[in-house]
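=== RUN LOG ===
request id: a7f3
mode: sequence -> structure
chains: 1
length: 128
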Amino acid sequence: MNKLQGGCHCQNVRFEIEVQQQPKLDSCNCSICLKTGFLHLIVPKSKFRLLTDEQELSCYQFNSKIAKHYFCKSCGIKSFYVPRSNPDGVSINARCLDTSDWQEWQIDAFDGQNWEANASRLAHLSKE
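=== RESULT ===
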């Protein structure tokens, strides 16, 4: 396992994750992912550690209110969130990692515009 760190633009929100060598990423076409440029790296909650105070975060929820979208209160960047597809995991925005290695990892397209029909394809990603 590799330990990687990342965070928001202003660095007020920092996190650490443990991932396998060259994990797979998902690029989702749902409205919120398209508008934020989110590139998903889903990990089990046990492989995620918030390094800064939770008070630096603001949470946004919509529709089913299962997903918890966390944003930095200062710069507004969403570097991670708890996805509806994996409520026992955390989805990291690979673009918010401190490394550019993610550009060499496999990126699969995910049809989030038809989420209900496709969500089961992601459900295993937060399992250890």
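=== NOTES ===
The mean pLDDT is 94.
Residues 31-36 form the longest helix (6 residues).
=== END ===
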